[in-house]
């Protein structure tokens, strides 16, 4: 039962609204909260509907590593001295020397998850168990209103609330994506169809299935195929791995290739025309959707290990394949209608279980920002425009007030492949805080890549100053 009326309260508007309300507490907003913490003049709060921090729990497979180095933690690339760094986490856990001797540059995914949880459990100003219902603009008081529902331990509504803020940071992340031809399988009763996001919850069932098909040729598909392969008997693997890409391609990981994940490239990409950005976003899939070379090598090693007596493992790996349609046959079996794009041939595959390693898509902002829709400036494709400082472009009725909505991991169409990248989280957060304060609490480097993107060097970014310098705030809570 709610302890407040079903309508959100309309409390007295505080004399000084909050400086920042964060919506979502994934790595992006957790980075922002950590870097905002020492800026004591800022009044901030962050909300997330989950009961605690969890980072892709269904993909914390034994041995899987994060695809960025440990220096790309929540804070280090903006403030190496921060108490919220990965190295300080290791020190707090008395694991600094073991890590030193392990000589790991890329940490285990489960360890990154544990590090972020440590930050979330010790950093003040985080409100888990709070679902944000709506955001609207209050023209009279020149600030945003944020309505939320506080949830109990069972996820049921316990109380309603409202807060007011000059700035919002959206870090609502991505959601599992299922392509249209495969959607009929998801809700089919009796069929074992699992998105990669939920793999570990269904791992035992998948290992016990007679035949398993993994759909998706990216890193998640590779990790899941490898895990299944390692735990099924030699000669009786009964695995299929298919994907639409023309090859099980390695992720671009050369040092110059990685410069696409620098602030330099992000600024260059943002300055391009919309049609060029859209074309590049599609063409650059191998920069962030390929397979880590170590994972690909481990798959080959595991397959080769099963061939000493001349036999071949019962595993089929076929790229260049798309699923045209899918459905259930008999009681529990699944039939996939496949097409090989290059051969222009079609066939059917019957399997007992399917893992959909089909990736994620940005969560739409439509529902959350429905009340602000008239104020959003959109591009030719109907998508919200995002400026170089990661702020939604709003009409002058809001923009001229100095208030802003910042988006931290939803700008692939405006900021390129680095938009959701963990390695740029600290830089994005520092950019937001510099813009929000109108100051430079986190001085950022003028140059970050040896590559010069474009014939004309990108001009220095314009001043981020929007509002007068902040003064100490009165606590209105």
Short description:
With 477 residues, the chain is α/β, with parallel strands linked by helices. The chain has helices at 27-36, 86-92, 96-102, 109-122, 183-186, 203-208, 219-230, 263-271, 274-283, 285-288, 293-305, 396-399, 412-415, 425-437; strands at residues 20-23, 44-48, 126-128, 130-138, 143-151, 157-165, 167-170, 174-176, 192-195, 212-215, 239-242, 315-318, 321-329, 333-340, 345-351, 353-356, 360-362, 404-407. Helices cover 25% and strands 20% of the residues.
Instruction: Tell me the total number of β-strands.
Output: 18
Straight-line distance between termini: 25 Å
Spatial extent as radius of gyration: 24 Å
Largest sheet, strands/sense/barrel? 5 strands, parallel
The portion of residues assigned to helices is: 10-25%
Count of helical stretches: 14
Order of strands, main sheet, comes to 3-2-1-7-18
Give unreliable regions as ranges. Answer: 1-6, 462-477
Q: Average the pLDDT over all residues and give the rounded result.
A: 91
Overall geometric form:
globular
Task: Return the structural class.
Answer: alpha/beta
User: How much of the polypeptide forms β-strand, as a percent range?
Assistant: 15-25%
């Amino acid at each position: 039962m709610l302890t407040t009326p079903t309508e959100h309260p309309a409390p007295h508007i505080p004399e000084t609204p909050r400086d920042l309300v964060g919506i979502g507490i994934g790595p992006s907003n957790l980075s922002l909260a950590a870097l905002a913490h020492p800026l004591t003049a800022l009044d901030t709060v962050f909300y997330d509907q989950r009961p605690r921090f969890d980072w892709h729990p269904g993909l914390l497979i034994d041995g899987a590593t994060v695809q960025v180095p440990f220096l790309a933690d929540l804070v280090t690339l903006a403030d190496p001295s921060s108490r919220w760094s990965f190295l300080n986490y290791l020190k707090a856990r008395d694991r600094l020397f073991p890590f030193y001797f392990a000589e790991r540059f890329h940490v285990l995914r489960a360890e990154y998850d544990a590090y972020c949880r440590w930050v979330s459990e010790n950093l003040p100003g985080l409100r888990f168990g709070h679902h944000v219902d709506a955001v609207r603009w209050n023209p009279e008081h020149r600030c945003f209103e944020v309505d939320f529902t506080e949830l109990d331990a069972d996820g049921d509504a316990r109380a309603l609330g409202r807060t007011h803020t000059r700035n919002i940071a959206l870090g609502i992340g991505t959601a599992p994506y299922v392509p249209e031809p495969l959607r009929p399988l998801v809700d089919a009763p009796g069929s074992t169809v699992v998105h990669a996001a939920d793999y570990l919850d269904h791992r035992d069932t998948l290992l016990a299935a007679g035949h398993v098909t993994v759909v998706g040729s990216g890193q998640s598909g590779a990790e899941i195929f490898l895990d299944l392969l390692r735990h099924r008997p030699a000669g009786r693997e009964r695995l299929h791995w298919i994907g639409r890409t023309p090859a099980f391609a390695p992720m671009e990981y050369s040092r110059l290739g990685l410069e696409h994940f620098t602030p330099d490239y992000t600024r260059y990409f943002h300055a391009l025309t919309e049609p060029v950005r859209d074309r590049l976003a599609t063409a650059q899939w191998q920069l962030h959707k390929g397979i880590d070379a170590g994972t690909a090598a481990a798959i080959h090693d595991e397959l080769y290990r099963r061939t000493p007596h001349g036999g071949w493992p019962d595993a089929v790996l076929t790229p260049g394949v798309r699923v045209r349609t899918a459905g259930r046959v008999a009681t529990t079996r699944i039939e996939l209608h496949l097409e090989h794009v290059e051969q222009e041939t079609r066939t059917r595959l019957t399997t007992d279980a399917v893992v959909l390693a089909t990736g994620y898509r940005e969560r739409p902002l439509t529902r959350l920002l429905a009340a602000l829709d008239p104020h959003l400036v959109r591009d030719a494709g109907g998508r919200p425009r995002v400026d170089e400082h990661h702020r939604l472009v709003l009409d002058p009725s809001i923009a001229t007030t100095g208030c802003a909505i910042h988006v931290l991991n939803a700008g692939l169409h405006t900021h390129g492949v680095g938009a959701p990248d963990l390695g740029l989280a600290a830089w994005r957060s520092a950019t937001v805080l510099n813009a929000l304060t109108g100051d430079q609490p986190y001085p950022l480097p003028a140059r970050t890549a040896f590559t010069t993107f474009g014939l004309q060097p990108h001009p220095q970014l314009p001043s981020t100053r929007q509002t007068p310098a902040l003064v100490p705030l009165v606590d209105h809570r």
